[in-house]
Write a structure and sequence with these properties.
With about 450 residues, this protein is α/β, with parallel strands linked by helices. The protein folds into two domains: about 270 residues, Glycosidases (TIM Barrel, Alpha-Beta Barrel), CATH 3.20.20; about 130 residues, Golgi alpha-mannosidase II (Immunoglobulin-like). The chain has an eight-stranded parallel beta sheet with strand order 5-4-3-2-1-8-7-6. A six-stranded antiparallel beta sheet has the order 9-11-12-17-14-15. A hairpin with a 5-residue loop joins strand 11 and strand 12.
Length: about 450
């Protein structure tokens, strides 16, 4: 902790003299299937696996993933998963002939033979023209397995309208928002999910914010959680680089700052020409260890994030940097926060992505939380090499700021000195904070 916080520390539990920051007495929100499921399970981290030859359940467990994403119902993978006692999700492959008796029997048999299933991911990247077929299967699964999570995975932004639609577009234009809204309303998934892989071999990083913003907007309209596949592989044929430590941390913590409550890695083992956490010989690649450390931190912070609602996301640019498309500049009062007066990045040298994301959240009682995320990352760069120090100037009433420790999963409180709070964030890393006492929802030790 001394490494990251340069503030006066000297207390464990502190309450503001002038009361809690937030609204009290609000009625509890009505929660749908997806949000009830998210709150009743550990924060979801999983990785797509489909190669029995390189799937070792002990090795998978050691990367600190909370569940196994089984992409094809291969007995070797399911047997090892169940023997290890790990929970699992199953991808139901596209079935253009619909929900047949044979498909029902096959899914029922898999569920009976292999205990520990958490959910069904139905039909990866469906087109508009295929959604009605997938929707029937999802409805049957909801009725048959009411305690399981039933969801699908959508395209990211960037494809053509005809690809989203599955052919010539009926009625004119068909935007990505149209596609995601159809995905959410026709299929009615318990979770809105998509995949997006931003890290290019030439060192560039694609702007994820248009996809994140659109999926978040539609999911919040529907009152469901939102998840994403993130990049943990390289693919020379498509020009994707292997993410560095700072890369993968930036992508995951950016999603957390937007309010995502589930992360799936693509992919666990090597597929095709590229490689991933595990090589084609079963060897652990360097990113395996980066993701292991990252997942432990995500699990700690995710204890609370499962119970929080994202209310605003703002962007703080470093000098000379431009505001990315679909990003909204931070300003005083953003997120209903009346206590942060300024946010300053303490680094004089300009660099691309040397910026900070601020995600705002509320709990069921209206209490305010915020996540500061350092977006600075780069090809082959470690988290330490992209660290940033950020200084908040605060309202004089703020005497204490608390954080949910990434390292331990325990809450901590810190005095504010002379109206300033300073924190050092490793590259690509976020911290979940709140004004006042260290009361975070969802902690196992509460």
């Amino acid at each position: 902790m001394k490494r990251f916080l340069t503030i006066c520390i000297g207390l464990s539990i502190v309450v503001f003299l002038f009361g809690a920051f937030g609204c009290s007495g609000q009625s509890k929100p009505e929660l749908g299937r997806g949000k009830r499921w998210v709150r009743s399970h550990p924060f979801t981290t999983m990785a797509l696996t489909l190669v029995p030859r390189t799937f070792d359940a002990n090795e998978y467990h050691d990367v600190k993933l909370s569940s196994v994403l089984v992409w094809k119902p291969k007995p070797q993978i399911l047997d090892r998963t169940v023997a290890k006692g790990m929970p699992w999700h199953l991808h139901v492959y596209p079935h253009k002939d619909g929900l047949t008796k044979e498909l029902k029997a096959r899914l029922i048999d898999i569920h009976k033979r292999y205990p520990g299933q958490l959910g069904w991911l139905v039909w990866d990247e469906p087109k508009r023209s295929q959604m009605a077929i997938a929707a029937k299967t999802m409805q049957w699964l909801r009725e048959t397995y009411p305690d399981k999570l039933i969801y699908s995975n959508a395209y990211p932004l960037g494809a053509s309208a005809e690809r989203y639609y599955g052919g010539p577009v009926s009625g004119g234009e068909y935007s990505y928002e149209d596609y995601i809204r159809d995905f959410a309303t026709i299929m009615q998934p318990d979770v809105v999910m998509f995949d997006a892989y931003p890290f290019k071999e030439n060192g560039n990083t694609s702007n994820l914010m248009p996809t994140l913003n659109t999926a978040r907007k539609v999911a919040q309209e529907q009152g469901v959680p939102y998840w994403a596949f993130v990049q943990s592989h390289n693919d020379p044929g498509r020009g994707y680089r292997m993410p560095s430590e700072s890369d993968i941390r930036m992508q995951v913590f950016m999603h957390l700052a937007y309010g995502f409550t589930g992360i799936a890695y693509f992919t666990y083992e090597q597929l095709g020409e590229g490689t991933a956490l595990i090589s084609e010989t079963g060897k652990r690649n360097p990113i395996y260890y980066d993701v292991t450390r990252l997942n432990q931190e995500v699990g700690h912070v995710g204890q609370a994030l499962r119970f929080l609602e994202s209310t605003d996301v703002r962007y703080v640019t470093h000098q000379g940097n431009t505001l990315p498309d679909y990003a909204t500049a931070w300003e005083q009062g953003a997120g209903g926060d009346q206590f942060i007066k300024t946010i300053r990045i303490e680094d004089a040298d300009p660099a691309e992505w040397k910026d900070v994301l601020v995600g705002y959240f509320r709990d069921d009682d209206g209490q305010l939380y915020f996540m500061l995320t350092n977006l600075w990352h780069g090809k082959d760069a470690t988290a330490d090499e992209r660290a940033l120090t950020v200084t908040l100037t605060l309202d004089p009433r703020v005497q204490v700021i608390s954080r949910l420790s990434r390292e331990t999963g325990h809450p901590e409180s810190f005095w504010v000195t002379n109206g300033k709070f300073q924190i050092t964030l490793p590259g690509g890393t976020g911290e979940l904070l709140r004004f006042g006492d260290a009361q975070f929802p969802g902690l196992d030790h509460d």
